[in-house]
Design brief:
By secondary structure, the chain is of the alpha/beta class. The protein has one domain: Rossmann fold. It is 43% helix and 18% strand. It has an 8-stranded mixed beta sheet, sandwiched between helices. Helix 2 crosses helix 3 and helix 4 packs antiparallel against helix 5. This is Pimeloyl-ACP methyl ester carboxylesterase. Pfam families: Abhydrolase_1 (PF00561). InterPro entries: AB_hydrolase_1, AB_hydrolase_fold, Carboxylesterase_BioH. It comes from Roseococcus suduntuyensis.
């Protein structure tokens, strides 16, 4: 399995196709396999598509090193892009990976040609109309992590899935996606202390790359609120709603998701 070493850590990735680089960043409890429904379609469209596995996610090993943070993962993605030596890339992130992609574009604008955010996770600060951060999702993930740490992996994964997908989300999830979450379950212990800053108006207005926001028609309302605020603040932005899709929109309706991504990249 190929990898690119950033600060002495190998960042593994799946790769397909040739052409301009298109990097995919997965969300909580995910890894490079989270984008399996995208690899063939994006490669066939003429891109060198690379689905990254974030530090400590499968096939890597979980460690208690305290470096499972947003800042560490932002630095890892920026390091991968720099190591490619191909200039700015198209960068797509889902959920927590959307937050990471947003921060890469904010902090390293020279590395991002186009930015695609699929229901980016996080909270809004007051400059974007948000209340002081409630910490509700963080509390839910902390409880899920505690359950996983005590040995109740299925209970913890169920609780985490329902925090983003609503009641019954884990039971509805296909077995291949459950396997990915199980393989990455202990990374949730690190995410509890990831120190994720809320989105601010200044950060959103700093995004220079043309940006696509992708949301699921049937997703939980907290993701819509984030995208509403970002849509108002990011200078060059488009938004697409994926029909018949929840928070796992790239898996729920890959045909429409892939078409929306490729249309935006070709524009």
């Amino acid at each position: 399995m190929p990898s690119i070493t950033v600060d002495d850590y190998p960042i593994a990735y799946a790769e397909a196709g040739e052409g301009p680089p298109l990097l995919l960043v997965h969300g909580t409890l995910g890894d490079q396999r989270s984008f399996s429904p995208q690899m063939e379609a994006f490669a066939a469209a003429g891109y060198r598509v690379m689905a990254l596995s974030m530090r400590h996610c499968w096939p890597g090993q979980w460690g208690e090193g305290g470096d499972f943070t947003i800042d560490r993962h932002v630095a890892d993605v920026a390091g991968v892009i720099a190591a490619l030596g191909a200039g700015p890339v198209a960068l797509l992130g889902h959920s927590r990976g959307g937050h990471i992609a947003f921060r890469v574009a904010e902090r390293h604008p020279h590395l991002v040609r186009k930015l695609l955010l699929a229901e980016p996770g996080g909270e809004l600060d007051e400059s974007l109309g948000g209340a002081p951060p409630s910490g509700a999702q963080g509390a839910a993930f902390a409880r899920a992590a505690a359950m996983i740490g005590s040995g109740d992996v299925e209970g913890g994964l169920t609780h985490a899935a329902e925090a983003t997908g609503g009641p019954g989300a884990w039971d509805r999830r296909p077995e291949d996606r459950k396997r990915i979450s199980r393989d990455n379950a202990r990374t949730l212990l690190g995410q509890v202390d990831e120190r994720r800053a809320p989105y601010s108006r200044a950060a959103a207005e700093a995004i220079q790359a043309p940006t696509l926001l992708l949301g699921g028609e049937q997703s939980q309302p907290q993701f819509g609120r984030i995208m509403d605020a970002l849509e108002r603040a990011i200078p060059h932005v488009r938004r697409v709603t994926i029909a018949r899709a929840t928070h796992g929109l790239n898996n729920d309706n890959p045909a429409d998701f892939n078409a929306a991504v490729l249309s935006f990249l070709a524009a």
